[in-house]
Design a protein that fits this description.
This protein is about 25% helix and about 35% strand. α1 (about 20-30) crosses α5. The protein has helices spanning about 20-30, 45-50, 65-75, 90-95, 110-125, 215-225, and strands at about 10-15, 35-40, 55-60, 80-85, 100-105, 135, 140-145, 150-155, 160-165, 175-180, 185-200, 205-210. The longest helix is centred in the middle third of the chain and has 15 residues, at about 110-125. The chain is built from six helices and twelve strands. The chain folds into two domains: about 10-125, Response regulator (Rossmann fold, 3-Layer(aba) Sandwich); about 135-225, predicted glycosyltransferase like domains (Thrombin, subunit H), CATH 2.40.10. The strands form two sheets. A six-stranded antiparallel barrel has the order 7-8-9-12-11-10. The protein has a five-stranded parallel beta sheet with strand order 2-1-3-4-5, covered by helices on one side. The two termini are about 30 Å apart.
């Protein structure tokens, strides 16, 4: 559905170093949700340190780190939503210290891109549900009750639990301890229980133990992230 000419944009997303075809497709997707796009090159990305942007899409690679570091150090964009474009999961993990939230896969396809923007647009627009889930990609260490280590990457985080992706299989109801670090949150350990598992997509969810007070640090981080 095309955006009404009378509808005003309430947020801006910077498109850094994207090819023209990718810029056009993502501009169309974001504008469906009232998000304007501002294309720029990495050389001109100092704007991220001085101007307010609610989101940023940047090609995953070595050049992305200094751009994102500069943006995160600015008072205006320390909490903006960061999307990666392309690259492998390993490449995306290298950007996790800067709080990368989600990744558009290449080749960029309109249905998948639109689905990702739709899933994250409330975070960009600061229109939060009561039980918000924050998309965030970071490395997570999972240890089972038998001390079996499992490597995983996070997909979404809430104050009550998180969804993850891993090649290892875990059973629903299984007790685990998860360990991870986030932007402005030093590494934390918390007990949890596997609440669901989808083998086809290699994803699973954990619910934090309500009796483990360490989970309160996660709640504080989530609240601070949203307030920012």
């Amino acid at each position: 559905m095309p955006l009404s000419p009378s509808k005003k944009f309430s947020a801006r997303a910077a498109l850094v170093d994207l090819q023209e075809s990718s810029r056009g497709l993502l501009t169309e997707c974001f504008r469906q949700f009232g998000i304007d796009t501002v294309p720029m090159t990495a050389e001109k990305a100092e704007r991220l340190a001085t101007e307010k942007f609610e989101a940023c899409v940047i090609r995953v690679g070595s050049h992305a780190a200094p751009v994102l570091e500069s943006a995160r150090k600015s008072a205006s964009n320390s909490r903006m939503v960061i999307y990666g474009l392309g690259g492998t999961m390993k490449d995306a993990m290298k950007l996790s210290p800067y709080g990368i939230n989600a990744v558009f896969n290449e080749p960029l396809e309109r249905p998948a891109a639109l689905k990702l923007v739709r899933a994250t647009q409330m975070l960009v627009l600061h229109e939060f549900r009561r039980y918000v889930r924050i998309p965030v990609i970071t490395e997570v260490s999972v240890v089972t009750e038998k001390n079996q280590p499992v490597s995983a990457s996070s997909l979404e985080l809430s104050s009550g639990g998180m969804s993850l992706k891993s090649s290892d299989e875990l059973k629903v109801g299984q007790a685990v301890e998860v360990s991870f670090a986030l932007l402005t949150l030093p590494r934390i350990w918390v007990r949890a229980t596997v609440s669901w598992h989808r083998p086809a997509s290699k994803t699973f969810g954990v619910r934090f133990d309500p009796h483990d007070d360490r989970r309160l640090r996660i709640k504080e981080w989530v609240d601070s992230y949203l307030e920012g």
